[in-house]
């Protein structure tokens, strides 16, 4: 399919990083209220008319594919609460050049949608799960649903999405005593658990300061559970350092945006649900694509904006522990 697309100069930013990966937030709304992510009452949601339609997302991805984007991830908010998401997946899968469509989900609705998403062209999924205990799930996510998430993981495996990654935010005194249970999961099933450091957003500064566990500490504690061998990151767009226990079908990994940032190898930009291109997760570099799109700007206009963005994408974030990311109340606004 890649052979068929017109050869144009691919996106490369001012620091010579090829940009091949677009993360798309399809909604800022969520059916969970994770303590590190958003307040219990929710956030002032983006008004519905401002949210990009599937056709608008398709147009942006078509333009991005023309200039070298090969991989997209649907995220949010919770992407599976956007009705008929499989329709969007099918549209994106049909775009020449797009070779990989991934999903980030909390898994609650995955059991009922996995087959349709797979049939539409979804290739893989990251499922967020911070605990394997129901009472803690309810405390962390402020909603119940552990069983549903576990069903969602089973369904994702059964329909052949691969790899299946599990994203676990590690919090001291809350779930950091479950490292062993998650490690055990990777010895039993072909799932790839990624332990993530809590990142600061406006909503969670106190928690982030008090509960932050460095990925180095997590790794040390994982090593104490058995010998770990470095393994390649399955389907590697990811910034994780990845390991496996002897004979394990799955892997464990750590993602350390703060302790060891991975800006040097950044290959991505993000699209917010209301059509703003965000050039760094922790920066306030935003480019409005919705207005030009809605005022009749075609593919060439979007391509020009994407190219212009390459001069604006910062070299790195300058976030330190205990600081708040500018202009971001929660990850749900921009797609974590
Ligand atoms: N709802 C989807 C999900 O649960 O995966 C996609 C959006 S969610 C914002 C994406 C990921 O960001 C989840 O794994 C979540 O745990 C993580 N996340 C949200 N806020 C975070 C924070 N402050 N620090 C670290 N990870 C965070």
Structure description:
With 336 residues, the chain is α/β, with parallel strands linked by helices. Helices cover 29% and strands 17% of the residues. It is built from ten helices and twelve strands. A twelve-stranded mixed sheet has the order 7-8-9-6-5-4-3-2-1-10-11-12. β11 and β12 form a beta hairpin. α1 crosses α10. The longest helix is centred in the first third of the chain and has 13 residues. The model has no long low-confidence stretch (mean pLDDT 91). The chain binds S-adenosylmethionine. The site of S-adenosylmethionine has 20 residues, from β3 and β5.
Q: Helix and strand layout, with pairings?
A:
Elements (H helix, E strand, L loop, with lengths): L20 E5 L28 H13 L4 E5 L9 H9 L6 E6 L4 H11 L3 E5 L5 H8 L4 H13 L5 E7 L8 H10 L2 E7 L7 H7 L3 H9 L4 E3 L10 E5 L5 E5 L12 E4 L4 E3 L7 E3 L1 H5 L4 H11 L27
Parallel strand pairs: 1-2, 1-10, 2-3, 3-4, 4-5, 5-6, 6-9
Antiparallel strand pairs: 7-8, 8-9, 10-11, 11-12
Helix pairs in contact: 1-2, 1-10, 2-3, 3-5
The structure holds S-adenosylmethionine.
S-adenosylmethionine binds next to strand 3 and strand 5.
């Amino acid at each position: 399919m890649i052979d068929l697309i017109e050869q144009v100069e691919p996106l490369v930013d001012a620091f010579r990083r090829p940009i091949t990966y677009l993360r798309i937030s399809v909604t800022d709304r969520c059916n969970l209220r994770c303590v590190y992510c958003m307040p219990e009452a929710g956030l002032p949601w983006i008004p519905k008319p401002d949210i990009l339609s599937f056709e608008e997302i398709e147009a942006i991805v078509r333009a991005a594919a023309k200039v070298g984007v090969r991989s997209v991830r649907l995220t949010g908010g919770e992407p599976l609460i956007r009705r008929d998401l499989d329709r969007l997946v099918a549209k994106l899968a049909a775009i020449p050049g797009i070779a990989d469509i991934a999903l980030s989900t909390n898994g609650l609705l995955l059991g009922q949608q996995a087959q349709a998403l797979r049939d539409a062209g979804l290739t893989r999924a990251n499922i967020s799960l911070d605990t394997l205990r129901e009472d803690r799930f309810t405390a962390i996510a402020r909603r119940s649903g552990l069983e549903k998430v576990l069903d969602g993981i089973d369904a994702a495996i059964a329909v052949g999405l691969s790899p299946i990654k599990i994203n676990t935010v590690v919090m001291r005194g809350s779930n950091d005593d479950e490292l062993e249970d998650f490690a055990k999961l990777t010895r039993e099933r072909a799932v790839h658990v990624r332990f993530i450091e809590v990142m600061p957003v406006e909503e969670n500064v106190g928690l982030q300061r008090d509960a932050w566990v460095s990925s180095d500490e997590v790794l040390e504690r994982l090593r104490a559970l058995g010998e770990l061998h470095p393994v390649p990151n399955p389907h590697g767009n990811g910034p994780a350092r990845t390991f496996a226990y002897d004979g394990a079908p799955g892997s464990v990994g750590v993602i350390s945006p703060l302790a060891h940032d991975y800006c040097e190898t950044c290959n991505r930009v993000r699209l917010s649900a209301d059509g703003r291109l965000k050039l760094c997760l922790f920066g306030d570099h935003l480019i409005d694509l919705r207005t030009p799109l809605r005022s009749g700007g075609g593919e060439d206009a979007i391509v020009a904006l994407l190219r212009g963005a390459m001069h604006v994408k910062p070299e790195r974030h300058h976030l330190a522990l205990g600081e708040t990311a500018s202009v971001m109340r929660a990850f749900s606004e921009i797609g974590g």
